[in-house]
Amino acid sequence: MATVKLRRTASMWRTAAAGVLAAVTLGAAVACSSGDDGDESTSTDGRAGIHTTDPLGHSVDLDHDPAAAMGFYTTDVDILATLDVPLASTQPVREGYDSFPSYFPQDKLKNVTDTFVNYPEFNYEAVAEADPDFILNGIGGLEEAHDRLSAVAPTYSDNSFDGEPWLGHFERTASDLGREKQLAAWKETYEGKTGAAASKIGSAGLGDLTVATLNFSDNRFSLGCYAGLECGVFSDLGLSLKVGEEDEDLELGMEQVNQLADIDAVWFGTVRGAADDPDFVEMMNQLNASPQWRELPFVKQNRIYTYDMEMQYGSPSGALAFADQVTRDLTEQH
């Protein structure tokens, strides 16, 4: 089984750089349009099914609409579910999870009866055994993945972990698969949710807060948004960013902790968002031993929050859930 890492910057306790996931020059996409009911992907020649070219230049041809699709990484499963693509009964999860994140659309997952661990080691044998009729592969930066997966079923590959904003990848995928109607429905839901949440945060007198996602590893802080999800949500909630959506991650040593003094609230990613995650607890014990850390405004005001680390990789349900998380944290606990 092959092993690969998704993170390109140091995370608080998990994996390091994603050097193998290099960006690939994009090929031109073959235009697709959805049927009247939004459940059929058609090419310009009117054939049913999926007939397109993925962002990495692979031709993708499936002569029928997917009936048992698989997402190669967890975020791919969420994208398929959000786009109303029927799922195979077996799907992958990442190490540390025995099921999907709770914020995934559970009604779309009701036919999934079995899972297998597929990250950080990839289990191509389990993929073949699941017998999907279509595979969405967001780990296209690993060249062997497309070749091995396309031998099982028609595969649409994208390098979703190239450091570019997740939303662009999602929009391209939806368009290529002829699921523009489902994409538009998700955007309407997201805009409605973040609009209402921004009003709630503003009414609570918290709209002027400066916020950030924060990691701490090897005695160094890292601030930034890997796939842009958290920064995008913060902005859509009307909050100010310590590190902007287009900025490089900010790396600071412990001796530079005073540079965090202009932040009002921070979020750390943990397994399932648990505040009692052993690694998170150990990290906080280390930080709380520092007098400089204890003097930071967000520490004094107890505005240190956790969220499910899986959200950082970018997916439609993750964006909705992170908006809910931030709104609850800011308005229900203070």
UniProtKB/TrEMBL annotation:
For the region Disordered, what residue ranges are annotated? 34-59
Please provide the Gene Ontology terms (biological process) for this protein: iron coordination entity transport
The listed locations are: Cell envelope
Has UniProt tagged this entry with the keyword Transport? yes
**Taking every annotated instance into account, which residue ranges of this chain make up the domain Fe/B12 periplasmic-binding?**
68-334
Instruction: State the InterPro entries in the record.
Output: ABC_transptr_periplasmic_BD (IPR002491), Bact_iron-sidero_bind (IPR051313)
Q: Which domain of life is it from?
A: Bacteria
What keywords are annotated for this sequence in UniProt?
Signal, Transport
GO CC terms, sorted: outer membrane-bounded periplasmic space
Residues in the signal sequence: 1-22
Q: Which Pfam families match?
A: Peripla_BP_2 (PF01497)
Q: Family per UniProt?
A: Belongs to the bacterial solute-binding protein 8 family.
- This chain's protein is named HTH-type transcriptional activator Btr
